[in-house]
Amino acid sequence: MPLRQLVEYFNQRFAEEQGLNSPPLRLKGTRVEGYLGDLHVGSILQPVRLAESPVLVIGHDASSFVPDETNGSNRPLHGPAADKALNIVNLDRLTRTVHMLNYLPVAHQDGHLFLHVHPRHVLAVKRDHGAYFEEIIRRCGLSTRRVVITLQISPIYDRHLILLLERLRNYRDRGYSTAIKFDDRAGESFLERYCIEFLYRFTPDFVRFDTRFFPKLARDAENYRRRSSLLSAVRRLDTQLLIEGVNSEADADVAKLLQADLVKGSYYERNAVRGVERSLADCIG
Is this prediction's pTM over 0.90? Predict the structure, then answer.
């Protein structure tokens, strides 16, 4: 189905379900943006690459941004903006629909689409997690297996971790791929008390860490890797390690040290651009 028709279909569906007076999805050129009350969101799709051969893109990670109409810049949608949303379920469903529609131009590459689900959404929906979004995925002609539902594990929700785990299983039971991302601000006591147990109770397809999670590596890299019980737990499981936030050569060295399976970050994008430029120069020469 053409993109414009998909936008019209989902607009009608959202309007009927939520009693909206204006369409929440708008097509701007070839990009789709979402509107919920005063909130205006768009999509950024960042390539997820194979660590041993970063030229190979195995999927895209979707994140939301809020366009700043006054100066033409964008700012990420996270933290207070998402946490304070009155209806996090509607916001999550809208942003994921925006991401899905913007992913369609590269969907022919058969990669994964990594999507984040807010813990408040998971807790607010009591049953049939993933059923609503499954209909959206299939309407777009894709399968749930190609969609990776990412849940962040944070001390904020430490009292709900077992419940979050059970509900993440609901997504897996519907055929979704799953990922967990550990909050880079989490302290060692939280990691030791909750995160390792979480991993042994639920083995996701992917475990995600930002390079900011490993500040000690710069000072004592080899010893820190040996002492990291969390990383050791990941390595004992049938899961892939994704290191993101790789924005410099030093970050790339960290990813290599951690033996990442997958990587994401501007460092690889700059290298990809330079590679294309060199290829063009060789052709012209």
Answer: no
